[in-house]
Amino acid sequence: MKNKIWITICAVLIMGLCSAGTMAQTSPVAAPALLTNYPWMESELVQPSVLAATLKETFANWPVILNIGAVEDIKGAKHIGAVSTDKNMNLLKNTVAALPKSTVIVIYCGCCPFTKCPNIRPAYIELKKLGFTQIKLLDLPVNLQTNWVAKGYPLAEK
């Protein structure tokens, strides 16, 4: 009887943990660290409205903006492509190779929330390994379409 109770308790706990891990969380604030284990800090997130406002300033004030996904380019972004491929990860490394390590770099993918994104974590980790100290992630809780395009923020001219 005791074994059945323990098995039931364990099964309930495991189901609870599994279902908690399937929530569509996006930022470190929205999801417990245990579930997300993000390598970045909340202070490294930049809100879309803030970046959009920066893009209205003189070009000299803009950060380096890198699209490390397969979505549209926002205004001023260099298209790297999905860094989940070796080819594009190498392109990312080559793109930043000559930049000072203190350069403000904003990366974004925008295909999906951070918890599901195959690109944002590897790009962030690689930039950290390369010694960059001012890495920012464009905080797109849903995706680029919802959190940038639908709000009328600027896209690159085609």
Key structural traits:
6 helices; 158 residues; Oxidized Rhodanese, domain 1; 5 strands; single chain; five-stranded parallel β-sheet; alpha/beta
What's the gist of this structure?
With 158 residues, the protein is of the alpha/beta class.
Overview of the molecule:
It is a single chain. The protein has six helices and five strands; from the N terminus they run H-H-E-H-E-E-H-E-H-E-H. The protein has helices at residues 2-20, 33-36, 48-54, 86-96, 120-129, 144-147; strands spanning 45-46, 64-67, 77-79, 104-108, 134-138. The protein has one domain: Rhodanese-like domain (Oxidized Rhodanese, domain 1, 3-Layer(aba) Sandwich), CATH 3.40.250.10. The protein is of the alpha/beta class and 158 residues long. Helix 5 links the parallel strand 4 (104-108) and strand 5. Mean pLDDT is 83; it is low at 10-35. The longest helix has 19 residues, at 2-20.
Helix content class: 25-40%
Instruction: Estimate nothing, just give the exact number of structural domains.
Output: 1
Classified by CATH, the class is: Alpha Beta
The beta-strand count equals: 5
The CATH level-2 architecture is identified as: 3-Layer(aba) Sandwich
Structural class: alpha/beta
> Widest sheet: strand order?
1-5-4-2-3
The largest pleated sheet is described as: 5 strands, parallel
Task: Give the overall shape, derived from the CA principal axes.
Answer: globular
**Could you please say which CATH topology applies here?**
Oxidized Rhodanese, domain 1
CATH superfamily: Rhodanese-like domain
Low-confidence blocks of residues: 10-35
